[in-house]
């Protein structure tokens, strides 16, 4: 369970407020206009930015002051963040141990992650020898091997074409279900939210709305969402 308790985030005159709880195992989409603060919210949850006030709690424990590496969180960045000079295996291995000295069990786990994302045959390649979709799979595998219960996705797969993006979103949805993880995903696209997020929050006008069931929200959108959708 993730709790954002009276969170106030201030950046150079920009302010964002959030105050809600997300149950464990939920997939939450954060949707809203450009510049509304979606990435900023993820960065605060991940610990890359500090809120001005309020707390971030995981399973009731205050993690507001923990450094990013000590949080129960892994984050998939928009640009995949792969190291071009390292192989697929090494890029994923970094998610397990930064010095890449993996023991047998860790190597087996890494191999399993490679298979799950369909890259078992490409372990020795460098990112430059992969397609955009394959690179996204490597980044996703690196998130998986971290085995963190809370996964943050910042506009994942936005560089991919629609069909490939949908495949990747489905894969993420399936994998999250398998590990029973909780996910927050930033997206501009209502279809992305409808595809894998059981609940959705709208980020607009300085506020993150509390998560609402996605289908019901889009069937009967509040004004803030209608404004964003232009309907
Ligand atoms: N490091 C920073 N310092 C100061 N202001 C920032 C910083 N990062 C972002 N901002 C500002 O904070 C606001 C929210 O930005 P953010 O990137 O979180 O929006 P977003 O909803 O993710 O947008 P997009 O959908 O375009 O990615 C914007 O006004 C942005 O200019």
UniProtKB/TrEMBL annotation:
SUPFAM superfamilies in the record: P-loop containing nucleoside triphosphate hydrolases
One Gene Ontology MF term: ATP binding
Keyword Mitochondrion part of the UniProt annotation: no
Keyword Oxidoreductase attached: no
Keywords recorded for this protein, A-Z: ATP-binding, Cell inner membrane, Cell membrane, Membrane, Nucleotide-binding, Translocase, Transport
Domain ABC transporter: 2-230
Pfam family, one: ABC_tran
Cited NCBIfam families: thiQ
Protein's name according to its UniProt entry: Thiamine ABC transporter ATP-binding protein
Organism: Thalassovita aquimarina
The gene coding this protein: thiQ
């Amino acid at each position: 369970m993730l709790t954002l308790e009276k969170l106030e985030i201030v950046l150079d005159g920009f302010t964002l407020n959030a105050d809600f709880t997300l149950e464990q195992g939920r997939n939450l989409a954060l949707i809203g206009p450009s510049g509304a603060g979606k990435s900023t919210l993820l960065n605060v949850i991940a610990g890359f930015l500090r809120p001005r006030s309020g707390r971030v709690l995981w399973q009731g424990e205050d993690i507001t002051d923990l450094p990013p590496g000590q949080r129960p969180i892994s984050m998939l960045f928009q640009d995949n963040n792969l190291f071009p000079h390292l192989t697929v295996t090494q890029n994923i291995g970094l998610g397990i141990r930064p010095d890449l000295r993996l023991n047998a069990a860790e190597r087996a786990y890494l191999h399993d992650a490679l298979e799950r994302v369909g890259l078992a045959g490409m372990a020795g390649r460098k990112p430059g020898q992969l397609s955009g979709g394959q690179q996204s799979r490597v980044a996703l595998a690196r998130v998986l091997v971290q085995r963190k219960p809370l996964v943050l996705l910042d506009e994942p797969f936005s560089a991919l074409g629609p069909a490939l993006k949908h495949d990747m979103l489905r894969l993420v949805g399936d994998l999250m279900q398998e590990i029973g993880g909780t996910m927050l995903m930033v997206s501009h696209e209502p279809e992305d939210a409808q595809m894998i997020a059981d609940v959705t929050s709208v980020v607009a006008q300085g506020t993150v709305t509390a998560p609402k069931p996605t289908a019901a929200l889009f069937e009967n959108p509040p004004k803030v969402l209608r404004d964003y959708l232009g309907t």
